[in-house]
Write a structure and sequence with these properties.
- By secondary structure, this protein is mainly α.
- It has one domain: Up-down Bundle (Rhopdopsin 7-helix transmembrane proteins), CATH 1.20.1070.
- It contains 9 helices and 2 strands.
- Strand 1 and strand 2 form a beta hairpin.
- It is globular, with a radius of gyration of 34 Å.
- The chain crosses the membrane at residues 70-91, 112-131, 160-182, 215-239.
- Belongs to the G-protein coupled receptor 1 family.
- One of its GO terms (biological process) is visual perception.
- This is Opsin-5.
């Protein structure tokens, strides 16, 4: 199962990155964030899963202590980067839907700055266990490694470290995501009737943003569903009774957490499909609107030209009549003089 999941995840996320590289000059800020998600998922598949697959065949961890720390760091690094990226995506959607002025202000350079902050944030928290603040250790089933959650049982410093990780790398990002999408849902419900009366181009753009937001919500929901069971088991191991969790049961949350890298590419394709459909529909509506404007402009111009011609002809006829009348008047005066 892990082997098939790794193959699907690698090819799926690789395909997403390949297709994105072909249109890199046209990528919007939200799509750049989506590419970063694909990078995180690909990192989990390429860097982490081979170690687990080989260890599963050997029924034990075979890469030593340094391999365990490397595997734990890589899994935590890409997982944390993925969650913080989705937090940034939720904030982008929130600004785009609820505060249009800020949404227009966000450009590609801001997306790249945000990516730098995301990777720096993930690097900070994942490197702390390597410098003595916490550690990485094998999981109970012995074929993969993770944060040493059991440090909370050993010392007060371990408890502070675990609580800090839980707050800054799970609870705070999750709260921001939930807050952002709750506000978006309320805004969409309150403004849907107002947008319906706008111009067709504004309405189609709003519909596109709402659809992209729905798919972003789907990605975040899938990630949280995959990782929250793992977080619950980890917290129970840190502050509860770790021996009360059966080893067979502790495997399930780990497999579920790793599966997020496999189904995210499918959601990316849904994004591209919906975006293409909406973009095509919007393009057709724009072309239709432009054609109607062109026809209206042409008819108006013809009518104006006809009116100008008529006025010109009428003026010419009046001028000719006046000239003839003046000529006749001069002739009559001449005849009177001769008499």
């Amino acid at each position: 199962m892990l082997s098939y999941g790794r193959i699907l995840s690698t090819f799926g996320n690789g395909y997403v990155l390949y297709m994105s590289s072909r249109r890199k000059k046209k990528l919007r800020p939200a799509e750049i964030m989506t590419i970063n998600l694909a990078v995180c998922d690909l990192g989990i598949s390429v860097v982490g899963k081979p170690f687990t697959i080989i260890s599963c065949f050997c029924h034990r961890w075979v890469f030593g202590w340094f391999g365990c720390r490397w595997y734990g760091w890589a899994g935590f690094f890409f997982g944390c980067g993925s969650l913080i990226t989705m937090t940034a995506v939720s904030l982008d959607r929130y600004l785009k839907i609820c505060y249009l002025s800020y949404g227009v202000w966000l450009k590609r350079k801001h997306a790249y700055i945000c990516l730098a902050v995301i990777w720096a944030y993930a690097s900070f928290w994942t490197t702390m266990p390597l410098v003595g603040l916490g550690d990485y250790a094998p999981e109970p089933f012995g074929t993969s490694c993770t944060l040493d959650w059991w440090l909370a049982q050993a010392s007060g410093g371990g408890q502070v470290f675990i609580l800090s990780i839980l707050f800054f790398c799970l609870l705070l990002p999750t709260a921001v995501i939930v807050f952002s999408y709750a506000k978006i849902i309320a805004k969409v419900k309150s403004s849907s009737k107002e947008v319906a009366h706008f111009d067709s181009r504004i309405h189609s753009s709003h519909v596109l943003e709402v659809k992209l937001t729905k798919v972003a919500m789907l990605i975040c929901a899938g990630f949280l569903i995959a990782w929250i069971p793992y977080a619950v088991v980890s917290v129970w191991s840190a502050f509860g009774r770790p021996n009360s969790i059966p080893i067979q049961l502790s495997v399930v949350p780990t497999l579920l957490a790793k599966s997020a890298a496999m189904y995210n590419p499918i959601i990316y394709q849904v994004i591209d499909y919906r975006f293409a459909c909406c973009q095509t529909g919007g393009l057709r509506a724009t072309k239709k609107k432009s054609l109607e404007d062109f026809r209206l402009h042409t008819v108006t111009a013809v009518r104006k030209s006809s009116a100008v011609v008529e006025i010109h002809q009428e003026s010419s006829s009046r001028f000719t009549s006046a000239h003839v009348m003046d000529g006749e008047s001069h002739r009559n005066d001449g005849d009177c003089g001769k008499k």
